[in-house]
Amino acid sequence: MNNYKHKLKLLSALLFVYIILFEFILEHNKFLPKPSILFESLFQIWKDYNLLSGILITAGIVYFSIVGSFILLWLLKNPIIKFFAKYSCGIEALQLFKSVPVFMLILIVSLWFDASESAKSVFIFLITFISLSRVLAKELSRTKKEYLEVAQNLNPEKLYAEVYWKSSLPSLLELAVRFQRVLWLIVLVYEFVSMSFGMGAIMRLALLYQDLSGIIIIGIIQVLLIWLGTVTLQFLKKKIAFWET
Length: 245
Prior knowledge:
Blueprint: H1 2-25, H2 35-48, H3 51-75, H4 77-86, H5 88-97, H6 102-113, H7 117-140, H8 145-150, H9 156-194, H10 199-208, H11 212-240
Helix pairs in contact: 2-11, 3-7, 3-9, 3-10, 3-11, 4-5, 4-7, 4-9, 5-7, 6-9, 7-9, 9-10, 9-11, 10-11
């Protein structure tokens, strides 16, 4: 809570400096528009760029991918954990995936499928699911010995679900909190490159029009959405997995 208060104070101070500096001192500059101009153009930009649809599409893909991947991983936890426990090559393959440049994958998928919304959704979902699976595989080796000793009489299915899965859950949710920020960037870049409709494509359009006010307003909205998503996911993490790894 104190961390959020500190960030809020810092944000308020920066906002105050911006208003004073660019509204009254540097009225005519090519770097940042006056705050009053931003406020006046907000509703026009919202309408002209169809921002609501862009927000719903981009945010929807980000959080559907996180929630959907988490549910799928939970449904398949027993066979997945069993596979990783038996075959170390699976873990090594997932670690190798981390080294693949995401931007290269974005370019390839964009060339293959153009601005396909389905391709974008599947691509983002797969990246999220593989990232969560990688953390699950990594956490299996970190399961505390005392947990395994207590559960040594359980059958394998119970061992996977009650010990390995629950031991990995805090780390999986922590990844969801951190990874959603990265996922926003991936989706925005994908939309920017492929012109698949969303906030990334809207930012490219604003750039083509050299609309500085539009770019800044869209950026502020994105920051607020990411912050709201972070707070929500952290709240869920505390409620769902409040124990230590």
